[in-house]
């Protein structure tokens, strides 16, 4: 059963609807004035930069919402109706997975190993990494990773960094949501363990 964003519950079928309010004709939310920037956000005009926005009322604070149809991630704030919006890349069609998760682990400069399914699907590309890759600038998980769990079970989905900013706003990954390395560091420091994560249904 789908639920509206303002009434998001722990269900696997989630319809985000328009999470964000007051969207300008250019597609971006109205940016706060520099003097009204209590969350230390960059005020550089970069469309990928984290931005304070108005969201649907009733969203609990301290929750991640990923809207795959708009390539946006929202971190809801204690201030009612406010969130920090991040631009993301998402999983390509057939690999994106919606649902309700929790942050079950966090890692700085995480190591990475492709899943068995990834190796089977594309052995020419992934088999060489079957023993894993240490963390670092060339690692696909980037500078930080939030590991998404269903209960106590690792889903193998991640919210992570990337050193390929051109992939933000596209559906290219093996199922994970990605931010630029600079902005995953910003998100990572805000999100505590066990935070709830909603990955909404994809319709486009």
From TrEMBL:
PROSITE patterns: LD_TPASE. One of its GO terms (cellular component) is extracellular region. SUPFAM superfamilies: L,D-transpeptidase catalytic domain-like. One of its GO terms (molecular function) is peptidoglycan L,D-transpeptidase activity. Residues 19-45 are annotated as: Disordered. GO terms for biological process: cell wall organization; peptidoglycan-protein cross-linking; regulation of cell shape. Residues 62-200 form the L,D-TPase catalytic domain. Pathway: Cell wall biogenesis; peptidoglycan biosynthesis. The active site is at 160 (proton donor/acceptor), 176 (nucleophile). The keyword Glycosyltransferase applies. It comes from the Bacteria. InterPro entries: LD-transpeptidase, LD_TPept_cat_dom, Transpep_catalytic_dom. Keywords: Cell shape, Cell wall biogenesis/degradation, Glycosyltransferase, Hydrolase, Peptidoglycan synthesis, Transferase. The keyword Metal-binding does not apply. Belongs to the YkuD family. PANTHER family: L,D-TRANSPEPTIDASE, L,D-TRANSPEPTIDASE ERFK_SRFK-RELATED. This is L,D-TPase catalytic domain-containing protein. It comes from Wenxinia marina DSM 24838.
């Amino acid at each position: 059963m789908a639920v509206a964003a303002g009434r998001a519950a722990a269900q696997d079928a989630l319809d985000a609807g328009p999470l964000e309010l007051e969207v300008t004709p250019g597609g971006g939310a109205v940016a706060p004035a520099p003097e009204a920037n209590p969350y230390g956000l960059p005020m550089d005009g970069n469309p990928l930069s984290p931005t304070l926005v108005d969201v649907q009322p009733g969203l609990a604070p301290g929750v991640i919402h990923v809207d795959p149809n708009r390539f946006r991630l929202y971190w809801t704030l204690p201030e009612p109706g406010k969130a920090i919006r991040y631009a993301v890349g998402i999983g390509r069609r057939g690999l994106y997975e919606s649902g309700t998760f929790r942050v079950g682990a966090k890692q700085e400069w995480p190591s990475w190993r492709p899943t068995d399914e990834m190796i089977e699907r594309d052995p020419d590309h992934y088999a060489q990494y079957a023993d894993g890759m240490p963390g670092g600038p060339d690692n696909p998980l980037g500078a930080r990773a939030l590991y998404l769990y269903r209960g106590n079970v690792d889903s193998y989905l991640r919210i992570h960094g990337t050193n390929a900013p051109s992939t933000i706003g596209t559906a290219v990954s093996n199922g994970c949501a990605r931010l630029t390395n600079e902005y995953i560091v910003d998100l990572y420091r805000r999100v505590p363990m066990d935070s709830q994560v909603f990955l909404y249904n994809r319709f486009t």
